[in-house]
Amino acid sequence: MRIERVADAASDAVADYAALTDVALRTATEAERGLYIAESAKVITRAIAAGHRPRSVLLEEKWLPGLVPVLEPFDIPVHLADARQLEATTGYRVHRGALAAFERPQLPDVGALLAEARRVVVLEDIVDHTNVGAIFRSVAALGADAVLVTPRCADPLYRRSVRVSMGTVFQVPWTRVGEWADTATRLTERGFTTAALALADDAVPLRTLAADPPERLALVFGAEGDGLSRQALRAADLVVTIPMAHGVDSLNVAAAAAVVLYALGEPV
Protein backbone atom coordinates (compact mmCIF):
# COMPACT_ATOMS: atom_id res chain seq x y z
CA MET A 1 0.00 0.00 0.00
CA ARG A 2 1.52 3.31 -1.15
CA ILE A 3 -0.02 6.57 0.04
CA GLU A 4 -0.10 9.23 -2.67
CA ARG A 5 -1.77 12.62 -2.37
CA VAL A 6 -3.73 13.84 -5.39
CA ALA A 7 -2.23 17.03 -6.79
CA ASP A 8 -4.28 17.18 -10.00
CA ALA A 9 -7.82 15.79 -10.17
CA ALA A 10 -7.41 15.30 -13.93
CA SER A 11 -4.12 13.38 -13.76
CA ASP A 12 -3.64 9.96 -15.33
CA ALA A 13 -2.99 8.55 -11.86
CA VAL A 14 -6.72 8.73 -11.07
CA ALA A 15 -8.02 8.17 -14.61
CA ASP A 16 -9.86 5.01 -13.54
CA TYR A 17 -12.22 7.24 -11.55
CA ALA A 18 -12.91 9.90 -14.17
CA ALA A 19 -16.49 10.68 -15.24
CA LEU A 20 -18.16 8.04 -13.08
CA THR A 21 -21.60 9.57 -13.72
CA ASP A 22 -21.33 9.00 -17.49
CA VAL A 23 -23.22 5.69 -17.57
CA ALA A 24 -22.82 5.09 -21.29
CA LEU A 25 -19.09 5.77 -21.21
CA ARG A 26 -18.43 3.69 -18.10
CA THR A 27 -20.55 0.79 -19.35
CA ALA A 28 -18.68 0.77 -22.64
CA THR A 29 -15.17 1.06 -21.19
CA GLU A 30 -15.00 -0.66 -17.80
CA ALA A 31 -15.33 -4.24 -19.05
CA GLU A 32 -13.03 -3.44 -21.96
CA ARG A 33 -10.39 -2.14 -19.52
CA GLY A 34 -10.89 -5.06 -17.18
CA LEU A 35 -11.98 -3.09 -14.14
CA TYR A 36 -14.95 -2.14 -12.01
CA ILE A 37 -15.46 0.50 -9.32
CA ALA A 38 -16.51 -0.25 -5.74
CA GLU A 39 -17.90 2.56 -3.59
CA SER A 40 -17.84 2.81 0.24
CA ALA A 41 -15.55 1.20 2.78
CA LYS A 42 -18.05 -1.62 3.40
CA VAL A 43 -18.31 -2.60 -0.26
CA ILE A 44 -14.54 -2.37 -0.77
CA THR A 45 -14.00 -4.64 2.23
CA ARG A 46 -16.53 -7.16 0.91
CA ALA A 47 -14.90 -7.20 -2.52
CA ILE A 48 -11.49 -7.96 -1.01
CA ALA A 49 -13.01 -10.62 1.27
CA ALA A 50 -14.44 -12.27 -1.85
CA GLY A 51 -10.95 -12.51 -3.31
CA HIS A 52 -11.15 -9.61 -5.76
CA ARG A 53 -7.91 -7.72 -6.29
CA PRO A 54 -7.83 -3.91 -6.04
CA ARG A 55 -5.68 -1.95 -8.48
CA SER A 56 -5.95 1.42 -6.70
CA VAL A 57 -7.99 3.35 -4.14
CA LEU A 58 -9.22 6.95 -4.11
CA LEU A 59 -10.55 8.33 -0.84
CA GLU A 60 -10.73 11.11 1.69
CA GLU A 61 -8.12 10.73 4.42
CA LYS A 62 -10.72 10.26 7.17
CA TRP A 63 -11.72 6.90 5.60
CA LEU A 64 -8.16 5.56 5.49
CA PRO A 65 -7.79 4.15 9.05
CA GLY A 66 -10.80 1.84 8.61
CA LEU A 67 -9.43 0.45 5.34
CA VAL A 68 -5.76 0.08 6.26
CA PRO A 69 -6.15 -3.50 7.58
CA VAL A 70 -7.63 -4.78 4.29
CA LEU A 71 -5.41 -2.67 1.99
CA GLU A 72 -2.01 -3.28 3.62
CA PRO A 73 -1.35 -6.62 1.86
CA PHE A 74 -1.58 -4.99 -1.59
CA ASP A 75 1.18 -3.07 -3.36
CA ILE A 76 -1.19 -0.50 -4.85
CA PRO A 77 -1.49 3.30 -4.81
CA VAL A 78 -3.93 4.74 -2.29
CA HIS A 79 -4.77 8.23 -3.55
CA LEU A 80 -5.78 10.72 -0.86
CA ALA A 81 -8.01 13.59 -2.02
CA ASP A 82 -10.26 16.18 -0.44
CA ALA A 83 -13.99 16.36 -1.19
CA ARG A 84 -13.49 18.99 -3.88
CA GLN A 85 -10.90 16.90 -5.70
CA LEU A 86 -13.08 13.80 -5.49
CA GLU A 87 -15.98 15.66 -7.10
CA ALA A 88 -13.73 17.13 -9.80
CA THR A 89 -12.45 13.67 -10.72
CA THR A 90 -15.62 11.61 -10.50
CA GLY A 91 -18.24 14.17 -11.51
CA TYR A 92 -20.34 13.90 -8.34
CA ARG A 93 -20.14 14.45 -4.59
CA VAL A 94 -18.75 11.25 -3.13
CA HIS A 95 -20.72 11.08 0.10
CA ARG A 96 -19.28 7.73 1.14
CA GLY A 97 -15.77 9.10 0.66
CA ALA A 98 -14.01 5.95 -0.58
CA LEU A 99 -13.69 4.40 -4.03
CA ALA A 100 -11.59 1.51 -5.29
CA ALA A 101 -10.82 0.27 -8.78
CA PHE A 102 -10.76 -3.54 -8.88
CA GLU A 103 -9.57 -6.04 -11.46
CA ARG A 104 -12.69 -7.48 -13.06
CA PRO A 105 -12.81 -11.23 -12.29
CA GLN A 106 -13.23 -13.83 -15.02
CA LEU A 107 -16.81 -15.05 -15.21
CA PRO A 108 -17.45 -18.76 -14.65
CA ASP A 109 -18.50 -21.12 -17.41
CA VAL A 110 -22.28 -21.47 -17.67
CA GLY A 111 -22.16 -25.26 -17.53
CA ALA A 112 -19.93 -25.30 -14.46
CA LEU A 113 -22.15 -22.79 -12.68
CA LEU A 114 -25.33 -24.76 -13.42
CA ALA A 115 -23.81 -28.09 -12.44
CA GLU A 116 -24.07 -27.40 -8.70
CA ALA A 117 -27.10 -25.07 -8.71
CA ARG A 118 -30.67 -26.03 -7.87
CA ARG A 119 -32.32 -22.64 -8.14
CA VAL A 120 -31.17 -19.89 -10.49
CA VAL A 121 -32.44 -16.45 -11.42
CA VAL A 122 -32.25 -15.33 -15.05
CA LEU A 123 -32.23 -11.59 -15.75
CA GLU A 124 -33.33 -10.82 -19.29
CA ASP A 125 -32.35 -7.37 -20.59
CA ILE A 126 -32.95 -5.52 -17.29
CA VAL A 127 -31.33 -2.17 -18.04
CA ASP A 128 -31.70 -0.41 -14.69
CA HIS A 129 -28.55 -0.91 -12.61
CA THR A 130 -30.45 -0.24 -9.39
CA ASN A 131 -32.86 -3.10 -10.09
CA VAL A 132 -30.02 -5.45 -10.98
CA GLY A 133 -28.23 -4.65 -7.71
CA ALA A 134 -31.42 -5.06 -5.67
CA ILE A 135 -32.13 -8.46 -7.25
CA PHE A 136 -28.63 -9.68 -6.40
CA ARG A 137 -29.20 -8.64 -2.80
CA SER A 138 -32.46 -10.61 -2.71
CA VAL A 139 -30.78 -13.63 -4.30
CA ALA A 140 -28.07 -13.57 -1.62
CA ALA A 141 -30.56 -13.12 1.21
CA LEU A 142 -33.41 -15.39 0.10
CA GLY A 143 -31.80 -18.51 -1.18
CA ALA A 144 -31.08 -18.76 -4.92
CA ASP A 145 -27.78 -20.32 -5.98
CA ALA A 146 -26.79 -18.30 -9.03
CA VAL A 147 -27.76 -15.59 -11.51
CA LEU A 148 -27.62 -15.76 -15.30
CA VAL A 149 -27.45 -12.42 -17.11
CA THR A 150 -28.43 -12.00 -20.76
CA PRO A 151 -26.21 -10.10 -23.23
CA ARG A 152 -28.19 -6.83 -23.07
CA CYS A 153 -28.73 -6.82 -19.31
CA ALA A 154 -27.08 -4.09 -17.24
CA ASP A 155 -23.66 -4.85 -15.76
CA PRO A 156 -23.87 -6.33 -12.24
CA LEU A 157 -20.40 -4.86 -11.58
CA TYR A 158 -21.33 -1.32 -12.54
CA ARG A 159 -20.79 0.99 -9.56
CA ARG A 160 -24.49 1.58 -8.86
CA SER A 161 -25.35 -2.11 -9.13
CA VAL A 162 -22.56 -3.00 -6.71
CA ARG A 163 -23.59 -0.29 -4.25
CA VAL A 164 -27.29 -1.21 -4.24
CA SER A 165 -26.42 -4.88 -3.84
CA MET A 166 -24.38 -3.89 -0.74
CA GLY A 167 -21.54 -5.98 -2.15
CA THR A 168 -23.60 -9.18 -2.36
CA VAL A 169 -22.83 -9.27 -6.08
CA PHE A 170 -19.40 -10.52 -4.96
CA GLN A 171 -20.83 -13.52 -3.13
CA VAL A 172 -23.50 -14.66 -5.59
CA PRO A 173 -22.16 -16.82 -8.45
CA TRP A 174 -23.18 -15.29 -11.78
CA THR A 175 -22.24 -15.22 -15.43
CA ARG A 176 -23.30 -13.92 -18.83
CA VAL A 177 -25.26 -16.22 -21.13
CA GLY A 178 -25.89 -16.16 -24.85
CA GLU A 179 -29.18 -15.91 -26.68
CA TRP A 180 -32.25 -17.85 -25.55
CA ALA A 181 -31.90 -20.83 -27.85
CA ASP A 182 -28.60 -21.77 -26.26
CA THR A 183 -29.62 -20.81 -22.71
CA ALA A 184 -32.84 -22.82 -22.84
CA THR A 185 -30.94 -25.87 -24.08
CA ARG A 186 -28.40 -25.61 -21.27
CA LEU A 187 -31.14 -25.32 -18.64
CA THR A 188 -33.07 -28.26 -20.05
CA GLU A 189 -29.96 -30.44 -20.25
CA ARG A 190 -29.28 -29.75 -16.56
CA GLY A 191 -32.83 -30.73 -15.58
CA PHE A 192 -34.16 -27.26 -14.80
CA THR A 193 -37.82 -26.31 -15.04
CA THR A 194 -37.92 -22.78 -16.45
CA ALA A 195 -40.57 -20.47 -14.96
CA ALA A 196 -41.15 -17.10 -16.60
CA LEU A 197 -42.61 -14.33 -14.43
CA ALA A 198 -45.19 -12.65 -16.63
CA LEU A 199 -48.86 -11.84 -17.12
CA ALA A 200 -50.68 -14.48 -19.17
CA ASP A 201 -54.12 -16.06 -19.25
CA ASP A 202 -52.65 -19.49 -18.52
CA ALA A 203 -50.22 -18.28 -15.84
CA VAL A 204 -49.81 -20.32 -12.67
CA PRO A 205 -50.27 -18.35 -9.42
CA LEU A 206 -47.08 -18.07 -7.39
CA ARG A 207 -48.68 -19.90 -4.45
CA THR A 208 -49.26 -22.95 -6.67
CA LEU A 209 -45.61 -23.07 -7.72
CA ALA A 210 -44.45 -22.51 -4.13
CA ALA A 211 -46.61 -25.40 -2.85
CA ASP A 212 -44.61 -27.93 -4.88
CA PRO A 213 -41.56 -26.38 -6.55
CA PRO A 214 -39.42 -28.46 -8.93
CA GLU A 215 -36.11 -29.74 -7.60
CA ARG A 216 -34.28 -27.56 -10.11
CA LEU A 217 -35.91 -24.27 -11.00
CA ALA A 218 -34.87 -21.33 -13.19
CA LEU A 219 -36.84 -18.12 -12.55
CA VAL A 220 -36.83 -15.64 -15.43
CA PHE A 221 -37.42 -11.94 -14.84
CA GLY A 222 -37.78 -9.42 -17.66
CA ALA A 223 -37.02 -5.82 -18.44
CA GLU A 224 -38.84 -2.92 -16.85
CA GLY A 225 -41.87 -1.91 -18.91
CA ASP A 226 -41.49 -4.33 -21.81
CA GLY A 227 -41.39 -7.50 -19.72
CA LEU A 228 -40.05 -10.76 -21.08
CA SER A 229 -39.34 -11.30 -24.75
CA ARG A 230 -41.29 -13.74 -26.90
CA GLN A 231 -38.20 -15.94 -27.04
CA ALA A 232 -38.07 -16.15 -23.24
CA LEU A 233 -41.76 -16.97 -22.99
CA ARG A 234 -41.49 -19.67 -25.67
CA ALA A 235 -38.52 -21.20 -23.87
CA ALA A 236 -40.34 -21.35 -20.53
CA ASP A 237 -41.94 -24.54 -19.24
CA LEU A 238 -44.55 -22.47 -17.41
CA VAL A 239 -45.57 -18.87 -16.79
CA VAL A 240 -45.96 -17.72 -13.21
CA THR A 241 -47.73 -14.62 -11.91
CA ILE A 242 -47.98 -12.83 -8.58
CA PRO A 243 -51.70 -12.17 -7.96
CA MET A 244 -52.40 -8.45 -7.55
CA ALA A 245 -55.14 -6.45 -5.82
CA HIS A 246 -56.74 -3.04 -6.41
CA GLY A 247 -56.17 -3.07 -10.16
CA VAL A 248 -52.37 -3.13 -9.91
CA ASP A 249 -51.02 -5.25 -12.76
CA SER A 250 -47.43 -5.83 -11.66
CA LEU A 251 -44.59 -4.98 -9.28
CA ASN A 252 -41.24 -3.41 -9.96
CA VAL A 253 -38.96 -6.23 -11.15
CA ALA A 254 -36.70 -6.07 -8.09
CA ALA A 255 -39.71 -6.20 -5.75
CA ALA A 256 -41.18 -9.08 -7.76
CA ALA A 257 -37.94 -11.05 -7.50
CA ALA A 258 -37.88 -10.58 -3.72
CA VAL A 259 -41.50 -11.73 -3.38
CA VAL A 260 -40.95 -14.80 -5.54
CA LEU A 261 -37.75 -15.87 -3.80
CA TYR A 262 -39.31 -15.40 -0.37
CA ALA A 263 -42.41 -17.35 -1.33
CA LEU A 264 -40.34 -20.25 -2.65
CA GLY A 265 -38.04 -20.36 0.36
CA GLU A 266 -34.54 -21.80 0.26
CA PRO A 267 -33.86 -24.62 -2.23
CA VAL A 268 -34.33 -28.03 -0.62
TrEMBL record:
Q: Which UniProt keywords apply?
A: Methyltransferase, Transferase
Signal peptide, first to last residue:
none
Q: What is this protein called?
A: RNA methyltransferase
Molecular function (GO) terms for this protein are: RNA binding; RNA methyltransferase activity
Pfam families noted in UniProt: SpoU_methylase (PF00588)
The keyword Methyltransferase belongs to this UniProt entry's keyword annotation = yes
- Domain tRNA/rRNA methyltransferase SpoU type, chain residue ranges per copy: 120-262
